[in-house]
Amino acid sequence: MQSCKLEKNKAYIDGRWVSAASGKMHAVLNPATGEKVGEVPDLSAEEASAAVEAADRAFDGWRKTTAKQRCSLLRRWYELIMDNQEALAQILTKEQGKPLSEARGEVAYGASFAEWFGEEAKRTYGDHIPSPSPNNRLITILQPVGVVAAITPWNFPVAMITRKIAPALAAGCTVVLKPAEDTPLCALALAELADQAGFPAGVVNIVTTSDPVSVGDTLTSHPLVRKVSFTGSTPVGKHILRQAAGTVKKVSMELGGNAPFIIFDDADLDEAIKGVLISKYRNAGQTCVCTNRIYVQRDIKDQFVERFKTEVAKLKVGNGVDANTEIGPLINARAVDRVESVVRHAQEQGAELLYGGSRDDAGELFFQPTLLGNVDESMEIANQELFGPVSTLFVFDDEAEVIERANATPFGLAAYFYSRDIGRCWRVAEELEYGIVGINEGIISNEVAPFGGVKESGMGREGSRHGIDDYLEIKYLCMGGI
């Protein structure tokens, strides 16, 4: 099977598949069954530094390739990812747990960044600037920033990687990637396909480890690394910013969220329920743009709760390889313990359990789709990223009130609202303090649109024509004596 060829048990550095110098291996477990599905080298900080040095050696040659050459290689990588879509989806579900239908969608989504940024490589234009002097000519050119350190999370172990590697390669940068310790197999499979596509040695490097702190600190403070791209929690992002400050690296941060989903009384309720279901419960609620707080206008609250509860009760929990599964396991025991604790504490603070609320019989790491009512902003559950299949319901009376409450958070990644009033759509969209706003839509991500947050949800954008910007430096050339 193709999946066997893609399942690697070595790290990828300088065009070679390598073991840890210590010989240590790190087990990868299936969260649905607890079974070991693979193992990868447990690399040290010193070996991460060696990967940076390999990327630095490769940079001089890679930066001199033409945009068309880089475009061709990225196009070939895209084609190989799509040719192996099913094999990659099987690996993804085994190590991460999400339903196969979602895994297949993620692989296609991830591949789209290789295609998109391959094309964008040819569009990194400079400028001619009209000079204030007749004897001067002023132009700007764009050049690759250098070696990029990318650190990716476990919840989208294909898409989060291609969303960082593809623009870096398109710009002419080389990359050292540290995937999440729970989900390294997808990263190594993508490296195998990059190798097959023909990327030169050292251009793409994958460092696997069970020690993310020391390896991550090495990558984010290394003097040869000129750019850091991180997706993960806000506390870790703040630590990385401090690490990168020592050598004044360029940084992109896609951090935590606390997304509101607002349903006004003039909304199409059928569509709103569809939107919030997919926004909240895909990947068992383990996405950074997942709905965290559902705000329902008072006049339609009872109708919404009754219908939404019915739909939540229909969701099928189980192993991601089963065709009827809609909600897979959480990633590990810590995640389940945390969600269970958050739900219990919310009830102690006065939240009403409307559905679910417990671990599921499907297995040790499964949690029931859950619905909590009577929630308000004084409760701890309202002020944190849930990262689990738990919905919290808030009631509001008017537009100004709900905007103020939705914005009352340090986070600003994604927000959603449903309304059929065109004036309200413009007003609310402009007033919400979020980098991404879904209007009558629960799925917002694609390769052509800029993805990123404001406030403590991060900086920079991924995807779209803006996604390549942070991997490029602007150089101004002033020509005199004309």
From TrEMBL:
Extent of the signal sequence: none
Residue intervals of the Aldehyde dehydrogenase domain: 17-476
Active site positions: E254
Keywords: Oxidoreductase
Keyword Membrane: no
InterPro entries documented for this protein: Ald_DH/histidinol_DH, Ald_DH_C, Ald_DH_CS_CYS, Ald_DH_CS_GLU, Ald_DH_N, Aldehyde_DH_dom, Aldehyde_DH_Superfamily, Succ_semiAld_DH
Alphabetical GO biological process terms: gamma-aminobutyric acid catabolic process
Molecular-function GO terms, alphabetical: succinate-semialdehyde dehydrogenase (NAD+) activity
NCBIfam families reported for this sequence: SSADH
Family: Belongs to the aldehyde dehydrogenase family.
Protein name according to UniProt: Succinate-semialdehyde dehydrogenase / glutarate-semialdehyde dehydrogenase
Organism (species): Marinobacterium stanieri
